[in-house]
Predict the structure of LLM class flavin-dependent oxidoreductase.
Amino acid sequence: MARPDKLKLGTFVYTFGFNPAAWRHPDVDVNGANRIDHLLNVAKMSEAAKFDFMFLADSPAAAIGDPEALSRSPTKMNRFEPLSLISALSVLTERIGFVATASTSFYEPFNLARIFASIDHLSGGRACWNVVTSDHDETGYNYNFDGLPPHSWRYERGAEFVDVVFGLWDSYEPDALILDKASGLYYDKDKLHTLNHKGTHFQVRGPLNIAASPQGRPVIAQAGGSEPGMELAARTAEIVFSLASSLERNKAFAENVKGRMAKFGRQTSDLKMMPGVVINVGETKAEAQAKVNFLIDNLHPDVGRWMLGEFLETDLSGAALDEPFPMERLPAEPKGSKALFEELTDYIRKGHTLGHLIRHYAEKSTGNGITGTPTEIADFMEEWFEAGAADGFILMCPTLPASLADFIRLVVPELRRRGLFRDDYEGSTLRENLGLSLPANRYAAARQPG
Ligand SMILES: Cc1cc2nc3c(=O)[nH]c(=O)nc-3n(C[C@H](O)[C@H](O)[C@H](O)COP(=O)(O)O)c2cc1C
């Protein structure tokens, strides 16, 4: 029986596209990293196609590694800070949502609560925070640490961090503002609340000095698939970004996370599992493959080694491309994302050459990518959606705007023909369009009889 709901779509944004060689694509504006028009164009294309949101991955650090490789790959070396960017994009668009990544390991809760609440007002209720605890040493070096803090500490701090932010976002009850010039009353003092949080990592008095959000509170996304990651997602997340490499692995992950929600009093309909997928589409399979080949042929071998090494937390400089992956260089235990590490190491242990692995990752990320015709792409999405492995997809476009334009022109009409994707937005806020319930304000809820 077909699902009654429709799948959700988001545009994953690395400035020029997911593929590290994307900036060399003829359609790419090489100045796009420091001028708003390129990413505004991507936002407007996604909005015109009725996508749910634009997804900004991020890490508060320049990458560290082979200088030759980094000088050839702008992805992590020159990009906008995401909250600044979505503030600007949100006032230049009307309906598209904005998911910005911010780390609980290197921010203070009061700052982040205030920034996201402000962007939610600026955008009329289209802001979403992608909660991460960070995943590379280079971030820790910028925040008084000698590398990435331990996984357990990051999640302990992260869980408390999210609770404090939720508490601050509840400071003003939804109807606290009175705004009565005649009586001179601006807000109802009984509907503004002080948090007085004292915990292991934070001491935050509050209240937050901005009124309640137009969508109750900004939407919460989360990326991180380890045991504490799944607990945090089940307790707090409304969108989960995953990179599991197959339908079966995504389905198991979705069931694992959603299966934990009841104990937190949450409905599974309030969590959208959205795998990231790399899609290369063409009128014919050959045309789609030619687009992949162009990027792979323009991917400098040093950049390929750095890209894979960065994902696996190791340095692959000088490793032979026609030899199997140098397993001795693989760390015993990842510092960053356990989920991501596990996804790729299973594939690496199959004995492929390094050259093959670089090509595989550049074309398909951890493996959940597809190169093909519009019908093949729609079949792929319909199968994962109907199987419950995905409630939607985050499109990791190899190049921007070209791959996004291809998907919108070739695949969206097919998804609509099958009744799988919306023809128009359901509402004006991100929460309404995602079909998420409005979270109750804890103080207003406490007033309710019974
Ligand atoms: C699909 C996915 C995407 C991620 N994206 C980011 C990101 O953009 N920025 C970042 O700092 N960390 C990112 N992370 C890692 C998170 O910081 C995560 O909290 C941390 O690495 C722990 O991950 P784990 O729960 O999988 O062990 C991502 C993780 C996953 C699984």
